[in-house]
Amino acid sequence: MRDVAVVGVGLSEWGELWGRSIRDLFVEAAVNAVDDAGVEPGRIEAIIVGCMTGGLFTGQEHIGALVADYFGVAPISATRTESACASGGAAFRAGLMAVASGYHDVVLVGGLEKMTDVDGGGATRALAAASDAEYEAYHGVTFPGLYAMMARAHMAKYGTTREQLAMVAVKNHLNGSKNSHAQYQDAVTLEQVLGATKVADPFGVLDCSPITDGAACALIVPARTARRVAKGIPIRVTGSGQASDTIALADRKDLTFLRSTAEAAKQAYRQAKCGAADISFAEVHDCFTIAEIMVTEALGLVKRGQGGPAVEAGETAIGGRIPVNASGGLKSKGHPVGATGVAQIHELVTQLRGKAGKRQVKGAKRGLAQNMGGTGASSTVHILEVS
Amino acid sequence: MRDVAVVGVGLSEWGELWGRSIRDLFVEAAVNAVDDAGVEPGRIEAIIVGCMTGGLFTGQEHIGALVADYFGVAPISATRTESACASGGAAFRAGLMAVASGYHDVVLVGGLEKMTDVDGGGATRALAAASDAEYEAYHGVTFPGLYAMMARAHMAKYGTTREQLAMVAVKNHLNGSKNSHAQYQDAVTLEQVLGATKVADPFGVLDCSPITDGAACALIVPARTARRVAKGIPIRVTGSGQASDTIALADRKDLTFLRSTAEAAKQAYRQAKCGAADISFAEVHDCFTIAEIMVTEALGLVKRGQGGPAVEAGETAIGGRIPVNASGGLKSKGHPVGATGVAQIHELVTQLRGKAGKRQVKGAKRGLAQNMGGTGASSTVHILEVS
Prior knowledge:
The structure is a homodimer. Chain A is 36% helix and 18% strand. Chain A is of the alpha/beta class. The first copy, chain A, has two domains: 4-120 and 211-235, Peroxisomal Thiolase, Chain A, domain 1 (3-Layer(aba) Sandwich), CATH 3.40.47.10; 126-210 and 238-386, Peroxisomal Thiolase, Chain A, domain 1 (3-Layer(aba) Sandwich), CATH 3.40.47.10. In chain A, the strands form two sheets. Chain A has a nine-stranded mixed sheet with strand order 3-2-4-7-1-8-11-10-9, with helices on both faces. In chain A, strands 5-6 form a two-stranded antiparallel ribbon. In chain A, helix 4 packs across helix 14 (337-352) and helix 7 packs across helix 11. Chain A starts with a strand and ends with a strand. The model of chain A has no long low-confidence stretch (mean pLDDT 97). Chains A and B meet through helix 2, helix 3, strand 3, helix 4 and strand 8 of A and helix 2, helix 3, strand 3, helix 4 and strand 8 of B.
């Protein structure tokens, strides 16, 4: 198996972008990634792009061919991957396999979602396709509702408090206020989070990640050719894991533990020959505040049940023991579903290069990205290190 | 790069199956594949499943996790691939990379589509997501219309006749009448095809592949372990290619040539160290009758412009120089979009094992499968050989 390195990363504009299309957003991110790497687009041999539901959001599937065409690199191979909100992480992993196998030497991994081109409840309906359509969505439960049930179970079992949930939002908005790319660059107070319009008890609107249009790209090559192919410091991918769980929440033995994340992390730690204690910082899937708490536990970054106290003690803040979501996370940076997993790779590379500016994690040597689909029916975990 | 072999294949029931769900259909195909291979499901390390648009057809995305859950193999890695109607071929190729890279030793590749759970124009609208949603579908053009334009261009340039188009349908329905798994097992006459209800000039309804519910699976392992892991004769995958083209037909220089298929074939022939003349038989993407004619040309199985005369001369019939779609093809066997590419692998394995019964191609030693998305904006080509 060939080792793989990231040699370039790029993002498009993120936000409510009614004037822009998915092809447009992808091309912006792709151009930024190849510019960052200093690699000619003509050297790209394949595109793998994560997208959750181009069909329900925009009426457009066949996303791979679309973006290869508009980026001007047809007739290269172009495929979309989908694992709901972990579509970007799954694309990155598929890209690793494409390079590690020897099938391709230069692969552009991307992710995108255009979420605002639908009417009132359209986004909620489209996102519900990540849950069990027949046994969850059909009966009217939405994602805020599903995660609210997980939150209530976690609160009952471990004593996690409403305030601790809110502190995740406060921390991530503070981080996002230092990220010029974030959709929301405003710090929020604990009182604002606690007093926000209720969405699904215990969540107010500030416990929920937003609806976002955006794309992200990463260019990957074999590690041994990275310095020859591209300019700048390549970042090695040392660990990759992916796992699944029951699609319906009701089928789980324990609502408070993310089995797919724990399993994917185990694979990634094994491949990277390290453990949770060796991670400098992490970007994780905080689609709702409870998610970040449960993910840090499943990754072993904090002890089981201690995700709430850890955020309250500042352990996961920038400057804390294990900074989590220095970028602002999905909560503040935005969550264009299929792009999120690749944007996490963007943040890891930026931090590991020491180029994260006001949100830089000091001593960032080994970063972890965790991307999650549905209520955790899919998870990917990747570990990146300075070469 | 590790060589890969197929050790088991399976199909679900195919047809208009209003009483069955996508999870149900996938599990049937998966059980048949592992039974065929004699491999315990617990040995499967990853699932990669092709599906074009679970969202628009059924409201369900997150297809990978769904089928892993219902097949009872969670928490293994499970990802969906999508390249429109080539989603199954793309899944197969992603599976090859997963095994060739050393990431996984036993991978279940699948494909599925549940197309009949939508009302009147729902299927046509969902399928239009494989075209350019903004510049084709938005203006009302449908897939029969797009392929009809390609047919008219081919007729004008090469003198391909209306009768030759119809002969593709006659041949494939005759083949399908020998396939107990085909959705339509009825031979049709030239007069029936020519006289059928017009869909988009020059096509009648019998020039078009049907709407189908169904799934297909193939179990793949490293070639060197195939005889140890599974019972029966493993079939080696010796060539794989994938390529793209402009998503919109209007952006092509030549409507009569499938560039993505020609490019994917070039890659596959190179890897398999063979040429078109070395292929014993082929399963190709005959979504419309003109498609088979154009594909045989792009693959080099017949000369450019000679696809029509070749079918008229019986060259592509079972017993002809190069049998094409001995299974009945999409036209007669059915076309559950995401499943089609994997079902082609099923047919190749069945033929190469000499188990195709009344439709057996004599001397089948090297088979080729070509799967195509949209109007050819994506193509995959795979070459399989007896060990």
